[in-house]
Design a protein that fits this description.
The structure is a single chain. This protein has about 450 residues and is of the alpha+beta class. About 30% of the residues lie in helices and about 25% in strands. It folds into three domains: about 130 residues, no CATH class; about 100 residues, Endonuclease, Chain A (3-Layer(aba) Sandwich), CATH 3.40.960; about 130 residues, Gcn5-related N-acetyltransferase (GNAT) (Aminopeptidase, 3-Layer(aba) Sandwich). The longest helix is centred in the first third of the chain and has 15 residues.
Length: about 450
């Protein structure tokens, strides 16, 4: 069912209509797993526009972002129409642990508060010993959802990156010119540059063609400067993940764990999907095998793999690897890789490193051989819409059903331009492989 709002409604009225539709979509979901699956792949139609259900829920619960909540925890707030952070029933200062959608939150943030609550009627605690309550954090006034999910794309969306860098006392220079080439942010102590790619200006029709970003990256590599390219929509929709990646590069992750202190175990598909959607900037993809590192019974690191999708000369493909946001699991990749190779008796393994975020050095250090580098890939963008769309969705044979106007005699790109689309390029992938059969044959 489609949802329609109009300008005569108050923002609260608009939210209530959208909230009811979200509840309607999820009315048959009674478990965490069902909720997560539905939200991850569901859509909602608002004012004749199609939005990912996950994006809508993320927007209306962004006051929870600082706590890195699961998607089922976010939905819990919408389901109960809660607009304030749920706090401990005793100290009223800390947020207690969220158990599941069915069970909700624990009553107290710690065993200490639980014990004090049971004894408070017997002995009244002095006011000075109580934790100072914090002001409940509420949702900022509701605004038209189109103004956020489809906000005007501009460099202003990156404004708070300066605040983020200052928070961690990172010395940086903005708009740094090195040999007349501009870097959005340069961090001299680490020789790292950050390129902030907006979806409105850093596009092909604005002169940033296929090889622009990769050639710029290669120029700086010759000067021993590593470049990280961040798309605007990534900074807006997955800020905690992107910040965690930057801190990891700078060796400033808040929590460091040694892999030798972790235990390896299989991870079920639902948990793996949730972990990746919460901690990997590209989200989850289906994988046959999922293995994780557990520290104090908490999943802190995940590696997934399955049958090789693009190269039949390789038995397996490493799909995803990531650590929990804010964590640096030292030696995590090496430990998981060594285990997987032996446990599955892997003969050959291939993987693809996104060159926007690095050079694939972790693979070089762990016995992979660099096979090649793929051509840069592109995404389609629309004016004033903060979203990148995969080119696969707009292959030429699909365009007649997707576009308002379509000319069979024109190319995919020509048709897309005629329909007011632009495209933005990435840096391609470095392709790495391990061939253990060949190594044994030496």
């Amino acid at each position: 069912m489609a949802v329609n709002t109009n300008n005569d409604m108050t923002n609260t009225e608009k939210y209530e209509i959208i909230r009811k539709e979200i509840l309607n979509i999820l009315k048959d979901c009674n478990t965490n797993q069902a909720i997560i699956s539905k939200i991850s792949f569901g859509y909602i139609i608002l004012n004749n526009k199609k939005y990912k259900l996950k994006d809508v829920i993320l927007f209306y619960t962004k006051f929870l972002d600082q706590y890195n909540p699961t998607i089922s925890e976010r939905f819990y707030y919408i389901y109960h129409n809660s607009k304030e952070i749920i706090t401990c029933k005793y100290c009223n200062g800390n947020k207690p642990t969220f158990q599941s959608f069915e069970k909700g939150y624990r009553s107290f943030c710690s065993n200490e508060c639980s014990i004090k609550n049971r004894t408070k009627n017997k002995e009244k605690l002095p006011t000075k010993n109580k934790k100072k309550p914090i002001v409940n954090q509420t949702i900022e006034p509701f605004i038209e959802i189109d103004n956020v999910i489809n906000k005007l794309t501009n460099s202003g969306n990156f404004n708070n990156i300066i605040e983020f860098l200052n928070k961690y006392d990172i010395i940086f220079e903005s708009n740094k010119k090195i040999n007349s080439i501009n870097l959005d942010i340069f961090i001299p102590n680490n020789n790292i540059g950050i390129e902030l790619n907006t979806l409105s200006h850093d596009t092909e029709l604005n002169g940033k063609t296929k090889y622009y970003f990769i050639r710029k990256k290669e120029l700086f590599q010759k000067k021993d400067i590593e470049i990280i390219n961040i798309f605007e929509d990534e900074w807006v929709t997955t800020p905690n993940i992107v910040k965690s990646m930057i801190l990891n590069k700078l060796q400033l992750s808040p929590k460091k764990i040694f892999a030798r202190k972790c235990k390896i175990d299989k991870v079920d598909k639902a948990k793996a999907r949730l972990f990746l959607n919460t901690n990997h900037v590209q989200g989850a993809i289906p994988s046959k095998h999922n293995f994780g590192l557990y520290y104090n019974r908490h999943l802190v690191c995940l590696l997934t793999l399955g049958t090789s999708r693009y190269n039949e000369n390789y038995e397996y493909e490493l799909h995803r690897f990531c650590s929990s946001v804010g964590h640096n699991v030292i030696g995590g990749f090496s430990k998981l890789l060594k285990f997987v190779l032996n446990y599955l008796d892997v003969k050959s393994l291939i993987t693809y490193a996104d060159l926007r975020f690095g050079t694939g050095n972790v693979y070089n250090k762990n016995g992979f051989e660099k096979l090649t580098s793929s051509q840069p890939n592109y995404f389609y963008v629309e004016k004033n819409i903060l979203r990148r769309s995969s080119r696969v969705q707009f292959q030429k044979h699909k365009l007649s059903k997707r576009l308002k106007t379509f000319d069979e005699n024109k190319t995919e790109w020509e048709n897309m331009k005629n329909n007011k689309y632009d495209r933005i390029w990435d840096c391609g992938n470095a392709v790495y492989g391990i061939n253990r059969q060949r190594e044994k044959g030496k």
